[in-house]
Amino acid sequence: MAFLEIDRLVKRFGNVDVLKGISLSVEEGGFLVLVGPSGCGKSTLLSMIAGLDSISDGEVRINGRRVNELHPSQRDIAMVFQSYALYPNMTVGENIAFGLEMRGVAKAEREAAVARVAEMLQIGHLLKRKPSQLSGGQRQRVAMGRALVRNPQVFLFDEPLSNLDAKLRVDMRTEIKRLHQRMGTTIVYVTHDQIEAMTLATQIAVLRDGVLQQFGTPAEIYNNPVNLFVADFMGSPSMNLVPASVRSEDGRTVVALARANENDLILDPGPASERLGRVIGQEVLLGIRPEAITDHDGADRNARTLVDADCHVEVVEPAGSDTFVVTQLGGKHVIARMRSDAAVRGGQRAPFTFNMDKAVFFDPKSEQRVA
Amino acid sequence: MTSIATSNGGAAARTAHRPSMRARMQEALPKLVLAPSFAITLVFVYGFILWTIYLSFTNSKAFPKYVLTDARAYQRLWRWTFESDPPSSWYTSITNMAIFGVLYVVFALAIGLLLAILLDQKIRGEGILRPIYLYPMALSFIVTGVAWKWFLDPGLGLEQTMHQWGWTSFHFDWIKNKDYVIYTVVIAGVWQASGFVMAMFLAGLRGIDGEIIKASQIDGASPFQLYRRIIIPLLRPVFLSALIVLAHMAIKSYDLVVALTSGGPGGSAWLPSNFMYEYTFKRNEMAVGSASAVIMLATISAIIVPYLYSELREKAR
Amino acid sequence: MSTAATTVAPRAPGSPIISRIVIYGLLGLFALVYLIPFFVMLLTSLKPMPEIQHGNILALPKEPTLDPWIRAWGEACVGLTCEGIHGYFWNSIKMVVPAVAISTLLGALNGYVLTKWRFPGHRLVFGLMLFACFIPFQAVLLPMATVLGTFGQFGKTLINLTGMNFGFGNPTVNLVFVHVVYGLGFTTLFFRNYYEAFPTELIKAAMVDGAGFFQIFRRILLPNSLPIIVVTVIYQFTNIWNDFLFASAYAGSGDVMPMTVALNNVVNTSTGVVEYNVNMAAAMIAALPTLLVYILAGRYFVRGLMAGAVKG
Question: Which residue, of A97, A252, A302, C198, has the fewest CB within 10 Å?
C-alpha cells in the first residue's frame, strides 16, 4: 500500500467534471509532480489533497487513512503557495510559528522549532522582518520554512517557483531537491514547467483537461510517452513530430518522410519495426527528440539503429554548448541537436544522423502510441 | 478560485462517512455569522417596506390601522398631482422635486466637471484647493442650511452687505419668496455636493491612460477637441456613477429644506420627503404619507435597481 | 485623494500665460464661493450682537468675542429649556460611538463571509443588503416608529418586573439600533470590496495552518484591514453624526435630542431676540467633529465617499 493514494478522484462543478477520475499513488518519501498546461486540473487536484477543495467523488488516503472529510489542518499536510501567502501583518518568525501556535504548541518549543528551520533555510537573520521587507527569493524560503516547521507527513507545493526570475528559479529548484533528499518527506508538487517536473520528480503525472495522460518516472515519461500530448508537452525543445508513411521494402518495414524537391527520406524504424509491421501502408507520426538527430560524430555510440542521411539545412541556431539545426521533413520543421563545432551552414546540405532507437510512433487520428 | 467555502462540504455529506462535529460547526459558522445582518435587513428594510405599502392601502390617520380599505391615498395623491391653482402641497412637492432634481444634478455635474478639468491642468496649490471644494460634504445639511439661511437673509446677509457697499438696488430675497425659495435649496445643495462630484471626475481624469492623450495630440487634436472628443466620452462611467449618487441624494433631501427654509412660506419649498414627514407625523394623514413614501421608493428603485443589477452582473463575469 | 501621481491633461489653448491666469482666476473664484458661507458663519459667531445688526456680514469682527460660543455651549435655548447645546452634543457622541463600532464590526464580518466563505446565493444576499443603502428612509420611517414604540412598552414592562429597562425604550439606544440597521449595507459594501481584493491564498494558508473561522478573521484579516476600517469609521461617523431624519423622528424633542435636531431647534427658537451669533456658534460646534475628521483624515473621507458611490 502506497503512502499517498488518490483513488478515482472526481471534481464536479455543476454538471461539469473538471477532474475525471484520477488515480495516482506515491510511496513514502516520493516526489510526485503534477504537470500539465494551465486549466488541466492539476491545482484543483492539489487543493483536493489539501482539503481546500471538496471531493465530489473518489477518495484520498494518506498513510492508509481516508482524509476526505478531514479539515486541511487535520490532514497532517503543509503547503507552499504560488504567491507564498505570507501573512503581511506578522514577522517572518511569527509567520513560521503560526501553524504551531494554532496547534497549541508552547512558546519555547515554537521558538526552538523556528530557529531550527531558519537555520536549515539560512533565514535566521530575517526572522524579525515583515514579509514586505523581503526579496522574492527570501519570501519563497520563508514560505518553505512555514511548511517545514510543522514536520508534516506530506508537503504540497503549488507552483512555488513561478514568481521567481529565471536564475533564482534554478537555484531554488536545486534547493528544494536538496531539502527533499535530506528530509525524505513525501512531496506533491504542481508545476506547468516540464523542466521542473523532470528535474525534481521521482514520479510524474501528466494531466490534460482533467484526465490523467500518463503516470510514471521521469525517464518513462520522457522516453516512452503514451500519446502525442505527452510527447509534445515534455521536453524542450519539444519532440519533433513528423508525418510519415509506413512501407514495406525488401521485406523490411521502413518509414518514409516526404521532402521538398527530393526523394522521400527512408528510415529504418529500429526496435519499432515489428509493431509498425502491422500498419503497413498507413500514415503515422514519427516522434523523435532533437538530441536523437545529430551530426555523425555526435551520435550515441551505443545506439543500435543509426541512420545517416543528407538533408537541406534551413537555419542554424548556435546555443553555446550545442547547435540547433533546423531542416524540413514531412512538411514540418525538424530540429536536430548537433555539437557546437559541427560544420553546418544554413542553405546547404549536411549529413544528419538519426538515432532510431529513440523514435516513437503515433496514430495521427487517435493520437495514441502505435510503436 | 471562487469557493473555499464548499471545502469538506457537500460531497462529504453524500458519502457514508460523516464529517466530524467540528467540521460541521466550521461549515455552518460563516452562515451563522452573516445570518443576523441578513435577517435584520430582510425584516427592517424589506419587511418595513411591505409594511409601509400595506399602510398606504389603509385608512390610517394619526395611528396605524390595519384594515385594508382601498387605494384612496393614491387616488388623493393622483388628484393633487393636477391641483395647481392654488397648488396642493403634493403638487408643490413634486414640481419642486423636478426643479430641484434637474438643476441640482445638472449644476453639480457641470461645476464638478469644470473644477476637475481646471484642477487637472498641473495646478500649483492643488493640495489646498481640492479640500476647499470638498469640505462642504463633511457638513450636515442642517449646518449647511443654517449657514446659507443666514447668508441669504435679505435683512442681514448678502443683500444687506451689497447695500452697505453702495449697490442699493441689489435685491435678493428668494429665500422669503414662495416662487423662488426652491432655487435657494438648489444653490445650497449644489454648493455642498459639487466638490464631491469634482473629486469623482478628478479620479476619473487621473485614471485615463496617458498614451491615449499623447496619441490624440499627435493626431493633431486641439485641447478643446481633446476634451470634447476623447476625454469626456471616456469619463462616461464617472458620469453615470455621479448621476446615480446625485439623483439618489436629491430624492432623499429632507434636512436641507427644513434647515434652510423651514419648509418655505406656506410649505412652498417642500420636497416629497418633507411632504411625507409632514403628512405622517404632523397632519395625521398616515396613509397618504405612506403612499408618498412608496412613490419615492418606486422612483429611486427605477434608477438604482438597473444600475446595481448591471454592476453586480459585471463583477460576476 | 491622491490618485495618480502624474497628470496627463494637456495645457489649455491660447497663450500659455493668459490661459494660466484664466484657470487660476476661475479656481480662486470658486474657492472663494466655497469658503464664504463658512467664513460668514465663523465671523458672525465671533461678533457681539450690535455689530451684527448694524455691520457687514463679511466684515471682520471689530471686537472679537468668544461669548457666543460659551453661550451656545451653556445657555442657548432649545425650545423652552435654556441650558445650551452641550447636553445634545454628548447625546450625539453617546449615539455615534456605539453605532459606528457595531456597524463597522458587523460590516467586517459580513464582508469576510461574503468574499472568503461564499455559499450559493451569496450574490443575492449581498445585492439585497446593498440595495438597502439606497432606499429613501421615508419608506421605513413609520414601521420603525411603531417598532420602537413597542420596544418602549416592553421597556416599561421590564421596569415593572425587574426595575431596569435594559435599554428598551431608551432613545439613544433606539437611534444606535436604527443607525446600525441602516448602516449595515454600507459597511458591508466597504469591507466586501476590500476583502474581495484580499488574497484568498492567505486564507487557505491559515486553514492549512489550523486556524478556524474567527482565528483567521482576527489574526489574518483584521490586522490587514486598517485602511478600510478607517474609511468605514469615518464614513459612518459623518453620516450618523449628520443624520437629521431619524433623529427628528425618533428623538425629536426633550433632552434626548442629538446635536442636529437641537441645532435646528436653537435656530428656530423664536422666543426673545434672535441671537444670530449664538446660532452660528452652535452651528460651528455641530460641524466641528466632522470637519475635524475631514481635516485630519481627508484622504480616507474621500475614499469612503467614492467607495459609496462606485458599487459592486
Answer: A302
